[in-house]
TrEMBL record:
One of its GO terms (biological process) is aerobic electron transport chain. One of its GO terms (cellular component) is plasma membrane. It is a multi-pass membrane protein. It is found in: Cell membrane. This is Cytochrome oxidase subunit III. PANTHER family: CYTOCHROME BO(3) UBIQUINOL OXIDASE SUBUNIT 3, CYTOCHROME C OXIDASE SUBUNIT III.
Length: 193
């Protein structure tokens, strides 16, 4: 690769990173707006003050944090040239992502089982906000799982190696953002009832 091609590749890589960060910033603004509306709505007389988050949401938080660690270790394994370990860790990250989704739906089931509905005449503004916040996060999680599947596919096609890590770096950055966003939402919903 000559100097001109190296400079072009650097520009191309930098542009991809900037696009990802613009997307992340817009998602942060979306969640900032939703959580601000939640705070403002807490003053309503029909706000549920005795509502507790299901334990499934706490367990899902632990699972998604663990998935970020497995993703970090997978990246380190690729850099170390240990493809077999990287493969296991990437698959493990995917399994943890699916477990996170299952725990989220279990949490929704617990909420409904306690008689709190998210929509319709039996819903409350509190449960509707939780529903919207978690579902918007789930949409981002779906994007994260698709990203993870692309990273796994490219890993098995042997596209990542030392000096050629842009795809996995972008995927890991987005995955860690999804992780941090859920931690923010969980802490927010736990403390701002």
């Amino acid at each position: 690769m000559d100097l001109t091609q190296g400079a072009e590749k650097h520009k191309y890589d930098r542009a991809k990173k900037m696009m990802l960060w613009f997307g992340i910033i817009s998602m942060i603004m979306t969640f900032g707006g939703l959580t601000s509306a939640y705070v403002v709505s807490k003053t309503r007389p029909d706000w549920l003050t005795e509502f507790d988050l299901p334990n499934a949401f706490m367990w899902s938080t632990l699972v998604i944090v663990l998935s970020s660690f497995t993703f970090i270790m997978a990246k380190q394994s690729i850099l170390a040239g240990n493809r077999r370990n990287a493969s296991a860790l990437l698959i493990g990250t995917l399994v943890l992502a699916v477990l996170f989704v299952a725990l989220q739906f279990n949490g929704f089931t617990e909420i409904i089982g306690e008689g709190y509905y998210f929509t319709g005449s039996e819903s409350s503004i509190t449960t509707s906000f939780i529903y919207v916040l978690v579902l918007v996060h789930m949409a981002h999680l779906l994007a994260g799982i698709i990203t993870l599947l692309v990273v796994i596919y490219n890993h098995f096609k042997q596209r990542y190696k030392k000096g050629q890590m842009l795809g996995i770096e972008l995927g890991a950055t987005f995955w860690h953002f999804v992780d941090l966003m859920w931690i923010y939402l969980f802490v927010f919903l736990y403390f701002f009832r």
